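A common beginner's mistake is to predict each chain separately and then try to dock the pieces by hand. The better habit, illustrated here, is to supply every component at once so that their relative placement is modeled jointly.
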Amino acid sequence: MNHLNIRSALKLRIEHNPRQSPRHLYIGASEVGTCQRSVIAAKIQRPDLDPASMGRMLAGRALENEVVQLVRAALGSKLRDTGRVQREFEHPTLPFRAHPDGRIIGEKGDGVLEVKTASAATFKRYQSDGLPQHYLDQVQAQMGLSGLGWGLVVLVSRENLAEMMTFHVTFSPDHFRFLEGRARKAAPYFEDSACLPPGEPDRGFCFNCPFALDCPEHQALRKAGEHGEVPEVIRLQLSAQVEELGIVESQLKPLEQRTTELRDQIKSTLTNYMIDKVNLDGGTAQMVTSSRTSFSAKDLQREAPELYSRYLKTSTFTNLRITSRKGVSPCLPTAS
Ligand code: SF4
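With all components supplied together, the output reads:
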């Protein structure tokens, strides 16, 4: 099997789960809360994923299966409808379906199980901010379509399986009606694939959307953004974030100064009393000597300018510069 065969086998595995109906025929619970234009465009155009993204998706799914097994070990016979017997729930009139990772038998009624994996950074964000809106939409859609009254979301860090969090979600009929409304709006596009619904940049998925170039709503926003025009709601959100950043940074400065002071005081005490290491109640304080070999680019430029210029590389960075009425905050590199 050459690498092209392997690639198409991976693509087939991602696009089609033999236990579920073909995904291009309906809107899934995980898709109903995201931008409808990108969801339907992906079903019609089926863009090629790069091998790294395919690998990440398959690895994520394999890990989710692993976590389902861990939940099964914890819940025993209380966990049903997983793996080979995973259920598909279908809306009675709309092309709208859900495939929860399992059903948990509860004393006051059953619930859905949904397993999610996240990078360590995303895990931390969800830990402090709670589940993102599109996960809540997914679980509400699963509960509404399956008729179950509650959901358990198990979130696991991909870098460290021991980092695991659970979220309990209760069914909200209003939320489900809102999602049904979205699925109803998307339904005609499954029959007429010649056109696409309008883009929904406010859903927050434009950053890695493969259809961004052809999306009128995204392009209009980009153009407006070039002239500093942003929707009022985004402007207000940015204003609040910039204001909070200013407050946090002003609180940070005294802490940084105190950190430096304390380190200097500890260092000078150890040096004055010629102590290498001391055991304390809360840990140890130790003077560690280390050496570092550095390369002087300036010297090389002076000694061998031609060689130096041959290996010069130019990198481009995009920096965030925030100007407040009090001045300019330091530039923070955001991308390279
Ligand atoms: S660019 Fe944004 S609004 Fe446009 S289709 Fe993609 S996700 Fe939707």
